Amino acid sequence: MGGKCYLTTHLCTLTRHRFISTNTVQTHNEFTNLCSKGLTKQAFDTFKSLIWTDPSLFSHLIQSCIPKKSLPIAKQLHCLTVISGCFHKEKFVRNHLLNMYSKIGEFDTALMLFKSMPKRNIMSCNIMINGFMQSGDLDSAVKVFDEMSERNVATWNAVVSGLIQFEVNEEGLGLFKEMYELGFFPDEFTLGSVLRGCAGLKGVYAGRQVHGYVVKCGFEFNLVVASSLAHMYMKNGRLSEGEIVIESMPSRNNVAWNTLIAGKAQNGYPEEVLDQYNLMRIMGFRPDKVTFASVVSSCSELTTIGQGQQIHTEVIKAGAHSVPAVMSSLISMYSRCGCLEDSVKIFLECKYADVILWSSMISAYGFHGQGEEAIKLFHEMEQENIEANDVTFLSLLYACSHCGLKDKGMEFFELMVNKYAVKPRLEHYTCLVDLLGRSGCLDEAEARIRSMPVKPDAVIWKTLLSACKVHKNADMARRAAEEVLKLDPQDSASYVLLANIHASAKSWQVVSEVRKTMRDRNVKKEPGVSWLEVKNQVHQFCVADKSHPNLDAINLYLKELMEEMKLHGYVPDIGSVLHDMDNEEKENDLVHHSEKLAIAFALMNTPPCAPIRIMKNLRVCSDCHVAIKYISEIRNREIIVRDTSRFHHFKSGKCSCGDY
Known about the structure:
The chain is mostly helical and 660 residues long. It is 66% helix and 4% strand. It is elongated, with a radius of gyration of 32 Å.
């Protein structure tokens, strides 16, 4: 356009054609077709006489600006509506202008136009409510709503869905109730929003009431409502009820498939997620960015790198590799599978990185014990003017706690509260207690728990209990264990930690009492399990489990390896065996820990230069940690072990955690 006002140049021409009538059905259709395609200039030039004869058709031209968000053309059309007189005569034209400015990102202009309108109708107010909601100004949206003398269903929908979108769920559901009591009948959009609000509140009782209304009104087979209903049940942990809703649908669309896949992922069924994903594709549906986010997350849970790489290929083929949410899931997946380098590569290749993507990469560095890299990335994030959120700071605190960066961690906690005005959640306090506990500041850690403004849970007390084990503080351990067992009497880890602390002090009588309490309460200790993927097959090892077909060969290899390690200076840490038995039995017990069995199998069945990746359901014990350092040096292999807390990268006799 080059700044030339091509619309106003035709004003004189228009005045000469006032008497011409081209208002035929075919002409109207051609005009509206050009507008719907965004061909504003062509529509105007071709049908200028038609527009002047029927100025209300300016509304079609105005709408054509929205997809392209063309402000210059929008302003020119605005001027022409004023000059032609339809701005003052046609109220719906003013509303279309209002909607156009709101949709193309010129909400301040829309607000000025709204305030200058001598008369407003329901449509005017609805547009403004939606605009305020989109800009996050809930108070102004509600104010417009409250001042309206007349409302329709679209008005209620705008406010209810807007409040629920911003997780003001109780107020949203309250307005829905008021809407119903005033005689407005909810439509599919109202019910979809309300069910999402029930999901956000974990309100399955309210959700079931809405379900009853859905059936009563005949909406149970509506795809939008049924998918929202299934999501509500699954978000509340009622997976089977959600599945029943989806199975009863006469047909499925992508939203229904995504709801089912996400529900299984959220409820801890990663294997079934992959099954449903494959079935979805077989049935002819194409996965989208929502599908991939759930499926990649499930690969993270399963730590199946082969499956994850295959999904990554499908992400690229589907064109979803530029979607930050999907790429964030891939960063987490590769990180959790022990492939930090691949996480870094994905992050660097992303052109459109948002706060979620940056936070995922910071978390990946922290999970792999690279606290300094996590901090460096945070500072780069600040330089890019991307504002950190609560997840970013949670990842930073985690990274600091696992790398012994106590002072840095405390600084970030203060920065989060004072500069970024982020209200700490229980998870932030748990990281802070872990940071203090690992650094030996046990009294300060306990004081933080007892003084924090949120109610402590079992996890934060277990975090303190673990620190008591490291620093051998039996008195505080007893207090922490009591608090855990008040909240979760069946938590086996707390009994075991308490028993181990007393076993380290040779207080066998107390150990016996703790174990008797476990038996009396029927609390079972979780056995240590390690697994790895070799040639796309997962092999699992457990202490005292003799089911693996190669177990005899593994034990023989492991025995020879242990003798070789001793020649290089390895001394079994029999203090890690917290049972009252002789030293030979303790040493034999150590040899058959699940991670040692898994590593021996990997050494026997993988190429000499390939990294070994082991996953474990419990923390690595101190003896295994020392032993794996020796193995990495003797066999010249990189060994990556993921336990419940973090990744340990063993290479050339050293570990990435620095023995911290």
